[in-house]
Amino acid sequence: MISAKDLKNPHVVRRDLLASLVVFLVALPLCVGVAVASGVPAELGLVTGIVGGLVVGLLPGSKLQVSGPAAGLTVLVFEAVKEFGLSTLGPIVLAAGLLQVVLGVARFGRWFRAISVSVVQGMLAGIGLIIVLGQVYAMADLEQPGSGLAKLAGLPGLAVDIVTNQEALTAFGLGAGTIAVLLLWPKLPARARIVPAPLAAVALATAVASLAGLRPAVADVNGLLNAIDLPGGAEFSRLADVAVIGTVLAFALIASAESLFSAAAIDRMHDGPRTDYDKELVAQGVGNTICGALGALPMTAVIVRSAANVQAGATTALSRVAHGLWLLLFAALLPAAVGIIPLAALAGVLVHAGCKLVPAKEFGPLWREHRGEAILLAITAIAIVVTNLFEGVVLGLLLAVVKSAWETSHVQLTTHELTGGRVVVTLTGNATFLRLPRILEQLEKLPQDQPIELDLTGLRHLDHACRIALENWARRHNNAEIEPVTIRQ
């Protein structure tokens, strides 16, 4: 929240207002691009950005991270709009926001930090791959196939269309030029980099298209008020649909995880107060509830805007609130400016953003040091591409739990023979059902003609399945001539 003390300090106010302009210039093309890629009117992306600034910016949680429509939810929103229709998007987002508020009030925010980092990276990588695969079609002003596999299979045909179709080639050139500017911009002198790279890239592509007399596809602009479609009772009745409920859960969980992981990353970038995860989760929920009531896109905390905010020198929440005000003024006073931006340029911005979600540089060291985590990351990403976002994340979480259980259930079995022929078998560690096949395999190799003592006193944990299996083995192992196996616990 913004304190009166901060507002009385002209140095803080000036610095944060300047930072807000930087964040606004970064957020503007991303709000529009995410909306178009999600299959909704461009203005709805601006609405979400405005709510993220003016509402979430005033709520407690994280002072410096900035919320708005995120590329990470593009795939899920696109699928939801395609399956349930744009009119149902509002109730889905509203219900997801209310669920986030409940989770935050119940103090579940801190538990999102327990989600495996590899699953989150795999989720972001899968989302990034889907965005890239889909937006390369948009760069050529061509319709993208529905599924991830279909997008992959259609790439050769896309290449042929670009080479043989002059309009597709022109649009793809604008998109490729946008990506080139985004890649080269950080290498320019500091004075040139005062303008954020996404804005510069989109502005240059728009200028080239206009000066060259090109006619690429552009966003359809109807004005802010015309784009807002408040959901009614018929739309809210769809929330009883099982498929819609699954989408609500996916929105809430993925948006919450992305926001809180973003908060953790931003906390590492500054020395100010740390994020209160529960309050931040409530703030995100309130923002999504309002976005849903307006029929707009869902929001998350966005690492690109948040990092720009910190790097621009912001120290209070004033910067993120003011960035929402600039978005509102732009949407109200200059809506037609959105209608001249080539869709291919916006697609290029999202292709660049999608590539940054794929942790290509981190994968090699992760494979060398923690191969299991690297495999978990890869499986999650591939599952998202092959199936869908929700199923891929659920699979990743299940595999993470299984992997953790497997690694923590280490058990060691040792045997030694005492004078008189008695064999002592000692189990140490954690004996769970996951290790049961190996334990029984070793026990069944023991001689059946010698007295055996099974020592379980060194076990830190013995689950029910293991206990029953060991008792059954003890009863039937030795033949009738030898004394039964004894168990010491």
TrEMBL record:
Domain SLC26A/SulP transporter intervals: 14-380
Return any one Pfam family short name: Sulfate_transp
Q: Where are the transmembrane segments?
A: 17-37, 84-106, 118-140, 168-185, 239-261, 281-304, 324-353, 374-402
Family matches, as InterPro entries: SLC26A/SulP_dom (IPR011547), SLC26A/SulP_fam (IPR001902), STAS_dom_sf (IPR036513)
Instruction: List the membrane topology term(s).
Output: Multi-pass membrane protein
Please, which domain of life does this record's source organism belong to?
A: Bacteria
Q: Where in the cell is it found?
A: Membrane
Keywords from UniProt, A to Z, are: Membrane, Transmembrane, Transmembrane helix
Could you tell me what this protein is called?
Answer: SulP family inorganic anion transporter
